[in-house]
Reverse transcriptase Ty1/copia-type domain-containing protein
Amino acid sequence: MLHQHFKLKDLGDLKFLLGLELSKSKSGIFMCVYRRLIGRLLYLTISRPDISYTSHKLGQFIFDPHSGHMDAAHMLLRYLKHTVGRGILFKTNSDTKLHAYLDADWGSYIDSRRSTTGFCVFLGNSLVSWKAKRHNTVSKSSAKVEYRSLASVSTELT
């Protein structure tokens, strides 16, 4: 009907509108803010390692978000709003010694009993690498998780 009154160009199905992701199905049009927001938060973790854990945890629910997940994402945005000046500082007068710190959490995921490893590597006083990872297998002891963590950070240092 619009073609009769106006000169229009059809650009195909609508994918994005005003920063919202839209997808069309037989039951209607689905609008998703959460997926786009989490993608941007994950990208922001490059310069803000303090939000890495929360962003990745929220990313686990990207295909089935609930209102609680969106509330948590809004809390993270409020945190970012109040900590705008924070980031990673690479000092010019820092030494060149490597320092690595790690932590392992045995069986921290209640649903799967898998463990988590996290580490950060500093060159002098400057943070140059960090990682947090949930293990693929269930460990039978905390010592095994610690050895896995040491192997992971040793590989990173090498």
